[in-house]
Design the sequence.
DNA sequence: TAGATATCGAACAAAGCGTTTTGTAACATA
DNA sequence: TATGTTACAAAACGCTTTGTTCGATATCTA
């Protein structure tokens, strides 16, 4: 890929990410993005059809980067016999997320987070479904799965948004204690 | 208040709510709202300065309606000795929410939900803080509070979004089981 | 009924969007 | 190093949406 294209794309991603930290997605204009990124108008549209497309692409980029090696394992998650494996996987994911913290902050902070969140939730739903049903419960499995997935994304949100200084291991402990 | 104003405001609230069920807040135009509500352009702007203002006003309306009697109690929530009271309060809130289901669906369904969610979370944070610290725990209290609040809003979202046919009592049971 | 006021409808400027064009600079390659 | 290719900046464009204004009309209140 052309060096110029890389630079432009990175400039736009960076600018967009920075803007997302202080404004909601809906209130950010293309003009602001290209001003912040210092690229021409036509250049922006050469790379992205729309603002939504930019968001989508940034999300997939990050998601694929964060979960690339996990996805390669063909995600055969079966935690039915081992709490330890489950915890290890959680910590593993948190490490990945930590390394992408810079861009994630904007994505988790505001309304636009929905999109990346949905990627994450899709992945987690599959992963967590192996962990459920270990103990008998009244609530529908579907409900518990939904709640566990949301609890995890909210844990991450709590962690990222306020720059909480916990290690992935600490956070895993807290999370496991919460969902018991 | 003038009967015409009431009718107009209700027409706009209704139209907006219906649109929110099928489109995200950012993609709804004022034109669509006034077409759906069947009111003139100038009329809309006579009532609301902007689209965001409409959202804000609808949220406060619903929130105040749902929690009006609870708020009057000066919210002296102290559940330190009684799980029963806590459960009763939860069920109570769910009943209120159920009665406003129509408008809430749009607010919970999409990106715009953030605003109403934040009202709700503010209220719940105060309420839940009395329930925490009953058992010793490793995780920071702040974290647990955040998680409990989010768990509740997610429970409601799960309930509303998919028109799950649980009674407030059933849902309370599930929620209490989850947060234990 | 009379006076007040909410609404309608149309027209308007301003801002944002997405496209197109032209000239220039950075690139890959031979 | 020379050459063709590609990405970029800048400006102009038509279009959509926004938010305002104004006079005419319908509907309220008292």
Sequence:
């Amino acid at each position: 890929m052309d060096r110029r294209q890389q630079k432009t794309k990175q400039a736009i991603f960076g600018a967009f990410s920075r803007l997302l930290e202080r404004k909601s997605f809906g209130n950010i204009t293309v003009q602001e993005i290209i001003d912040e990124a210092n690229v021409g108008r036509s250049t922006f549209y050469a790379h992205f059809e729309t603002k939504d497309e930019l968001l989508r692409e940034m999300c997939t980029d990050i998601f694929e980067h964060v979960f690339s090696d996990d996805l390669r394992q063909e995600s055969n998650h079966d935690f039915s016999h081992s709490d330890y494996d489950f915890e290890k996987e959680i910590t593993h994911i948190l490490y990945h997320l930590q390394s992408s913290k810079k861009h994630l902050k904007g994505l988790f902070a505001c309304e636009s987070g929905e999109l990346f969140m949905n990627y994450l939730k899709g992945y987690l739903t599959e992963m967590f479904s192996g962990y459920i049903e270990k103990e008998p419960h009244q609530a529908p499995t579907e409900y518990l799965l939904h709640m566990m997935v949301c609890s995890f994304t909210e844990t991450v949100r709590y962690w990222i948004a306020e720059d909480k200084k916990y290690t992935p291991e600490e956070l895993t402990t807290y999370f496991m204690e919460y969902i018991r």
